[in-house]
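Incident log, structure service

09:12 report received: a user says their structure output differs between two submissions of the same chain.
09:20 pulled the input from the user's history:
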Amino acid sequence: MRRTAAVGLHALLVLLVAGCAAGSAVSDYGKVTKGAKGATVRVEVGPGQRFSLAVADNPSEGDGWDLVEVPDTKVASYISEEHESDGGGPGSGGTTYFVFNGKQPGTTEIRLRNCWRCGQARTPSTEESRRLSGEAIFAVTVAGRPAAG
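09:34 re-ran on a clean worker, output below:
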């Protein structure tokens, strides 16, 4: 009886862990705002509103976007980074989404960095890499009331 219970508990734990891992991708990006290297974009959301900062990318060409630092956690909380391919097969571009949730009223700056062909070093090693790398900046305001869609 004890062995059967232990096997059953183990099977339940395996299913729970597998279920959590399979569902880890965010399906609701909320309000999506597009940005690009060298641009500053304003974003206004309300408390509790999910929002995403979107940047075009193509990892097969050398794009490598990352969050420079977590923003003021009182204003916006970071949820995840998601990537969607344009569906053109291997080598096609896509979009990377950095997903956040608006918290308390206030402002914060979110900087995303694209280090072009930097690899694990995360630092441009060639002149071409330095020239093609850059930041997309998002000036985020969480309004005192829920923002319109």
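09:41 both user submissions now match this output. Likely a transient worker issue. Closing.
09:42 reviewer note: The first helix runs from residue 2 to 22. The longest strand covers residues 76-85.
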